[in-house]
Specification:
This protein has two domains: about 180 residues, 3-Layer(aba) Sandwich (Rossmann fold); about 110 residues, Rossmann fold (3-Layer(aba) Sandwich), CATH 3.40.50. It is built from eleven helices and eleven strands. Helix 4 links the parallel strand 4 and strand 5. With about 325 residues, it is of the alpha/beta class. The structure holds 6-O-phosphono-beta-D-fructofuranose.
Amino acid sequence: MLKSIAVMTSGGDSPGMNAAARAVVRTALYEGVKVWGINNGYHGLLEEDMFEMQSKNVGDIIQRGGTFLGTARCRRWQTPEGRMQGFKNLVDRGIQGLVVIGGDGSLRGAQLLSQETGIPIVGLPGTIDNDVWGSDYTIGCDTAANTIIDAINKLRDTASAHRRVIVLEVMGRRSGWLAMVSGISGGAEYILVPEVEYNLDEICDDMKRSYEAGKRYILVVVAEGVGSGKEIGKYISEKTGLDTRVSVLGYIQRGGSPTVIDRVKASQLGERAALAIISGLSDIVFGFDRGNVVSINLHDAVTNKKKLDPEYMHLAKVLA
Ligand code: F6P
């Protein structure tokens, strides 16, 4: 039984990270275990920017996007020397285990720390991309998808008014999950994702036929992993002669008050992570599989590439 742990958020922020960190803190305190907060991810760990937390430190944050602990991308953590320094900073404070809330890059850094030092590590998948192997959910993906369909609803109004083709580029790094689920739920005519081959010339010919048949407007959702929405929009405009505009949604997808789903699931994951690390478990990531919390081997989670659900791909094709 560990008596002192720490929690941090790392990599790209996501709505729900606060709910997860709050659950880690409150569960640890409930179990009578000391819990430290590390500011600004691995950067803060290296700079010894950490503080012992009380319940009030995580008050009034469950509804807030972003992360009250701050996060950062940290080059020094890529080095064994950097990771050893971080380990020392934990040991100097009597911290016996670490919960890392972040995306696959952050979880990879955590796995190396555990491998090189033996300190117990438990990870939580904190990223809007939903690209962590072994889990069909990551903290923030639901809020980001809802942000995207809010944008889609607005774009449909202006596309319809002007009889335009609108190309919307969304985030997701190398995963097409955000584009796929928001394209399906937003009723997009075309969804371009890195996981599925497509022929832009055939799509352009199809668009022209649709307009000739009276189609009023067309929405194309493009995952950033496919390429530049601006380039794709330019190609469509030149190839079809249709009035085309492009929106790159950008960082609005990372913010916002987390949805009920993100708040509840993040809280469930935070509780499980705290109980696991306190009991001495290590090298696991908690995620979800069809609605149930599952624990995934940390090494597997960071070395396997998550695939897009083929059911979504078929559905997108049928409904387009
Ligand atoms: O991983 C989350 C994410 O928002 C990706 O979807 C996006 O490509 C990336 O972070 C942007 O990274 P940064 O915040 O470092 O610009």
